[in-house]
Each structure stands twice: as structure tokens, then as C-alpha cells.
Amino acid sequence: MTTTIYKYHITLFLIFIWNISYGQQYVAYNTDNGLPSNHIYRITQDNFGFIWILTDKGMVKFNGNEFKTFTTKNGLPTNDVWDIRNTPDNKVWYFSKSPKLGYILNDSVYAFASAIKDDILHPVSFGQNNNSIVFSSANNTYELQNNKWQVVKSSSVFNTEKIISKKIGHLIVKIDSTFILDKNNTIISSFETPKEYKTIHYSTQINDSLFFLINTKGYSIINFNTLKLTSKTFKNQLSIGIIEYVRISLVNNQIQISGQDFVSILDDNYDLKGTVFIPKKFKSHFSFIDKDRNLWIATFNKGVYFLPYMQRNLRNDLVNDEVGKLQWVNKKLIANVYNKGFYKYNETTKKFEPYILIQDFLYNACYIDSIQTEFYLSNLNLIRLKKGITKKMKFPDDSNENLNSFAKKIILYNNSLFSFNSSGLNKLDFNLNVLKSYRQNGIKDLIIFNAKLFVATAKGLMLLENDSLKNAFKAKKQIGKPVTHLVTMDDDLIVCTDGFGAYHTDLKPVRLLKQSDFLSVTSAFVKNNEIWLSTNEGILQYKKTKDKYKLIQKYTKRDGLSSDLTNGIFVIGDDLIISSNNGISIISRNQTRSNSSEIFYYDKIQYNNFLLKNNSTIEYTNNSFINITVSSIEFCKNKTHNYEYKLYPIQKEWTQTASKQLSFFDLQPIKYTLQIRSIKKSNLSSLN
């Protein structure tokens, strides 16, 4: 038998899944959940999207779910790594005080010694242009040449001959002034350093043309292309006189300036824009904004704090309270807060305030305009509010005197009050005496539509007609689903169900609101020509055009919701007010949505238990198998990480999985392409 040598070549293309006083919800990462230390120096993001965290106990690569720590065990010359640079060739350079320095590439550590015997490398300033890195210590400037850190210029001279351009040779930085010389050491430009920068705390060349001089009061920038110097003070930029720990970072082609309790992006005029101020309670010394505009905060003793972009402008209220329905009662927005009572929304402070306090299981808040009366109903209470006077009502004589067994909601229909309880529909007089009962289990809601009283029940939609309850539709058109909530929109009735989505109907055809199928819809809100559904998978927003409803937006935890399992939705102005068992989330409709993405990649490939690396050559055998470990980069958590795959050309259909492990057996020695895609999008990753 002839042995065939076959080379499995793996190529990865990126896949994205688009989703997509302030109570912001920071995520803490520390030693309790995987970091080797809580002492954090810096954080950055590499070209693939991984987050790198520098600590005094090693470097950490983070994909949003798992920490991969690099230490001396993996080849680092020291665990105390305090500076980092990324270059376009995907190298992650690490810097510290050490006999060796280098980079990490494809999870392998490379370390290089100085060309000077027994030299201790101690970078204090840096130069970077594309893939080239130089750094200066107190005595020398170094560049990596022939796998050694070679001295390229001594003392206070920062060599940029190979880094900057052919035109400019060397940059000499002095305390009182700055000169630029050509290759013949002729001064071609000079600058008088502003008095604010007589003491320079930090200097760095950030790209091919910009060199920064920084101290606690501000920064100066030398542009090698224009040979001009620009100086800015923090007092003028941020209204802060002195800022400690100021650092410059080049992240995702953006220049960011960070310091104690702030991070900003540098614009084309070298001004600070989009400044994010960090709460002082974190005692942050360094922060950065990733490619999805998420915020990362470094501390000296509490690890890392992470704030998703959509949380940055989010307002939370009643945090950790179980908030149920949101109801409009007599020009007031009322929230049901479990075991606390009914809270009223203050549009000025954008906060919910105590209104009717009841430590009980709450039903509904109602308003009957004709008698100008508000009712607040719970399991043990019936509260009436009229003309500013609050009164606890007695229950009807034929009901349990300690239990509200007759009114979970009250509405006015045909000059009579109607309510429902667990066993049926009640007709009431204006003193809340029961005039007549209609037996029907499982009632959830009541509404007036087309001058008729419709009833939401566990077995479908019913109506009161000829003094009896009957199905709202003929059998073949009946919504035979458990109905939870009813709302009207123009000539349509919106019917929400438990587990079967939401429908719209004019009592003739019944149509499902697209993409709501199999969702539990707890409530709906209608405004103008739009409908918002509160569901177990977030908020769905539809727009009505003629007789059609189009889904135009979905709001989930990616957009700042405290939970995807929502209980209520209301819109006031440009604010979406959403209730859940985790409290209230208030989101502006006008805020820019995050392009937050999930990126799939292969973490490990094994052929017959042989671990493959890039460009591996292996021997083909019969009865062979290959195992591929699939991982993803995702910082704004999803509930699941489901995806689909197929191995071309032997698999024609997509297979859905949530497993990280893919296994294939008895593969013949031909070329294969493994395709991976989100179950919601058609973007592909391919492994060849």
C-alpha cells in the first residue's frame, strides 16, 4: 500500500454576528474568575479582537469567556510585564525590566536578549512605525536586528532613521527644547518646549509621523511630516489642571489618551473627543475603548472593570427589584414593583418614585375616567384613589374578606364596571358590588374593541355577546393559544400569547407578527404607527404601513437591557422604558447602536490525536479522524453560542450545534472546507 502524505491547511476568515444618577452595570474581572493578579498595568486589543491584560503575574489573552495566561512557564522572561504594543504583522510586543524582551505570535512566546553582554533592558520610551519597534532606556536606544536587541544610538538620542522616513534621520529630545536633524546632523527644525512641559514624564512615537511628549498637565505632539509642534493642556481640554498616569495608546487605528479616571480619543486636530470619565470609586489609572466602543478599566488592586458600549448611556432604576407591568393610569406611568407596591415615574428626574406602597403580589392599576377614580389591585388589597384621597376598600360580602378574589383588573363597558378573577368575569356596580358572574377559568386581560368587550383567556380570545362569553372567532379562525395581553391599534386588535407570539386582527383574518412565533409576549405598547412587544427574548419593535407590520428593531441585553426576559415596555418621548425581574432599563431610541460582534475562530486542531499547527504536514492513515475546537471572541454575552457548520464537499446541509468540539471521521486525502456561520446570519467562516 502506498502511503500518502497529505497537508491539512487551515485558513480562518472572520465571522460576525451583529446584534447588536445612571445605574451602569460594570462587569468585574479579577482573581476570583481567572486573572492571575488584581494588579493591572495596561489593557489593549490585538488585530484579531482578543483583549490583552498586563499584570504583575503574567500576560492574559481574553476572548470574553476564557483567560489564557502567559508566564515564565510559557517562555516569558518575567511575569511582571507593564507595557505592550501591537504591530500589523500580528505580533504582540511585551516590555518590562528584563534581560530579554520580545513578542507573542500565534500563542508562542519569543524572547530576545541584548547584543550587550549582561545588559538589562529597561524601556522608558518607545517608537513604532508599522511592524518596526524601537525603545529607549536611560542609556541606549534599541532595535531588534538578527534576533538581538542592537544599540542604535546612545543617551538621550531617539533613533528614528529607519522608522520615520528617508527624509528625517534623528530626533533629539532635551528638557528645554526639541530639535529635528537630518542624516547629516543638520538641524532642519527646532521647537521651544512650552513651559508646561519642562518636566517630561513620558514620551513615545505612536506611528510613522507622531511623537508625543507628555506630563501631568498636558501633551505636545511633533508631526514629522509637517515639522510642526502642537501643544494641548488638560485644563483647556478637560477642565482638569493635573492628571496622573497619562498614557498614549494606538488601538484599532485610533490614538487614545488615558489617565486617572478618564480616556479620550484624539481627533485630527489633536483634541480630545468622546471623553469617558471613569467613576472615582474604581480608582482607575488606565482605560481604553475597544473596536466595539466597549470600555475597559484597569486598577492597581481590584482587577479589570468592563462596561459594554450600550450600557454607557443607559439609565437603570429599581435595580434588583422585580418589576412587572407598566401601565398608563390617569396620565401617570405606573410600575408594579413586587412586594413593594405601585411606583410612579417622574419624567423630570427619570426615576420611579413610591406611590401606593403595598407589600403584596400586585395585579393591575386602572383608571375609570367617568368616575375619575384610580384603582390599585393586589392579592390582598383594593385601593381607591379619588380626588387625591386614598382609601382601602372592603371586598364584596360574598368574597373572602382577606383576599381579593373578584378584581384583578377593572374597566368600564356599557356603563357598567367589569372585572375578572381566577374563575371568571364579573359585572360590577360603581360601589364594586358584583351584579353578575360569567364563569371562565384562566382570564388574563380585558379590552374594549369595536364596541365589544374582549376577554383574553388561557384557551384563546373570547368576547361578551348577548350576555354570555363565546369564542371571538369561528373555529377555523380562532386563536387557540393562551392569550396574555390585549391592546388596540387603529382598526386592529393586537393579541399577545404565552409561547406562540403575537397576532394582529380586524376580526376577519388573523396574522402572526413576523418573527414573534414561539415567543412569550407579556405585554405590548402602541404609539402612532408603531408597536413594541415585551417578550422573553427582548423587545421587538414593529412599524405599520397600510395593513402590514414590519419588524424594524430588536432590543436585547446587547442594547443595554438588564435582562432579555422582559415584563413591560412603555415609550415616553425618545425613551424606551423596559421592566424586568432585574429592575427598569431606560434606553434612548436615538442612541447609536453598537456594532458588537462575535468572531468564531479555531482554537485547536487534532488529527489522530496529533496537534496540528499552521502549515503542518501529516501522514494520511485509514480510519483517521480530525477534531476541531471552535471558540469565539464575544464580550457582550449571549445566552447561547449556537452556530451551524458543514464540511464541503462531503456535507451538503448545514448542521446546528452549540458544541465547541467538531469531529470528522474517515476523511479521504482531498481538500476540505469547513464553513461556520451564525444561525441568524449568513456570514461565513471557512477552514480549508
Overall geometric form:
elongated
Query: What radius of gyration results from the CA coordinates?
Result: 33 Å
Can you give the mean pLDDT? 84
Proportion of strand residues = over 45%
Widest sheet: strand ordering: 14-13-12-11-19-20-21-22
Helix content: under 10%
Figure out the total of helices: 2
Query: What is the strand tally?
Result: 66
Q: Classify the secondary structure makeup into a structural class.
A: mainly beta
Q: Low-confidence parts, pLDDT < 50 over ≥5 residues?
A: 1-22, 154-176
- The rounded distance between the terminal residues' Cα atoms is 27 Å
Largest sheet: number of strands, sense, barrel closure = 8 strands, mixed
What keywords describe this structure?
Immunoglobulin-like; 688 residues; elongated; mainly beta; 2 helices; eight-stranded mixed beta sheet; disordered N terminus
Concise account of the structure shown:
This protein is mostly beta strands.
Describe this structure in words.
The model is unreliable at 1-22 and 154-176 (pLDDT under 50). This protein starts with a strand and ends with a strand. It is mainly beta and 688 residues long. Among the domains are: 114-248, no CATH class; 599-687, Immunoglobulin-like, CATH 2.60.40. The protein has two helices and 66 strands. It has an eight-stranded mixed beta sheet with strand order 14-13-12-11-19-20-21-22. A four-stranded antiparallel beta sheet has the order 2-29-28-27. It has a four-stranded antiparallel beta sheet with strand order 3-4-5-6, with no helix packed on it.
